[in-house]
Amino acid sequence: MTVVIAPDSLKGSLDALPAAEALAAGWHRVRPDDDLLLLPQADGGEGTMAALAAGDERSAYRDAGTVTGPDGRGTPGRWLRLGNQDAVLELAQMSGLPLMRRPDPLGANCIGLGQVMAAALADGAQRILVGLGGSASTDGGAGILTGLGARLLDAGGNDLPPGGAALRNLARLDTSAMRRPDEVVVLTDVESPLLGAQGAAAVFGPQKGADADNISVLEQGLRRLAEVVGIDSDRPGMGAAGGAGYALAAVLGGRIEPGAPYIASASGLTEAVAGADVLITGEGKFDQTSLSGKVVGYALSLPGAPMKVVVAGAVATEVLGVDTFALADLAGSPAASFADPARWLAEAGARAAGQLRQT
């Protein structure tokens, strides 16, 4: 049998590659002669670099040195050079919410992403793929532009401080010294526009510590940024990662694409599933939202692999023709499965293989 193992990460528990390895170990205990192909996946957020690296043996990680973290402290920056010389960056790697000592919804920034992008450009990359997700800031991507050399100026010609609140005083965006890639591809599973009730501040601000007053301030700042840039902010995905999608698309000319299909194609998953006997995918929680643009739902939609299996920390929905395994059920409780996810993923892999052996 040919078995493709292509999970997303189990958020807050285990990254996609070790999750795939654990599932493979369990499967091999029962069916050691099967051919297993491990293709960890992502939807454009955390794990994007690892997913694309797994499908490209010529890829290599590059160190960008110390860059500005979301709260102003230095943090390591890195990016992935693919075999075709494209650069892959993850916003969460250097500008993610877990890097904050404490939430700062009005002042957090994504300058580091721009600095890592500049490092990739200095190393010769011209086509840049940016995975959005896990952002600490709601600054409309203004920090990215700053990291690339742009200046955000108030009416007196002074540079604005970092963060979304300061954007209310934006008078001019000076991009004369800003470095620009030839092409930017923006990968995300978020369809939110920049502004409004479904926008960056209203929907994602609370996740970053914003209360109602903060959301109002951030909305004003994002609106002012859109007025100064002068480009429509309603395109789906522009509100991703605190509005970083807006700066990448409106100022840098980036193309916003759904992350799961792009990564599935680029990593070889689409082709692999077409010729496989079994597909195993998974995530932290499998529910109805999983079927709408996320890794698991997209993987299940791919043609091929007559046996399809979903392994998740918790399972809250069923799909006809798909076998499901909940780690919480195998371990006896969510806490037990969370404490040792690799063990229970391996158990799920073994049970899935055992089920196949019985058929």
From TrEMBL:
One Pfam family, short name: Gly_kinase
UniProt keyword annotations, A-Z: Kinase, Transferase
PANTHER family, per database record: GLYCERATE KINASE
Domain of life: Bacteria
UniProt entry tagged with the keyword Mitochondrion: no
Organism for this UniProt entry: Enemella evansiae
Gene Ontology MF terms: glycerate kinase activity
Segments forming a coiled coil: none
Organism phylogeny: Bacteria, Bacillati, Actinomycetota, Actinomycetes, Propionibacteriales
Family (UniProt): Belongs to the glycerate kinase type-1 family.
Gene3D superfamilies, sorted: Glycerate kinase, domain 1, Glycerate kinase, domain 2
SUPFAM superfamilies linked to this entry: Glycerate kinase I
Gene Ontology process terms (BP): organic acid phosphorylation
Protein name: Glycerate kinase
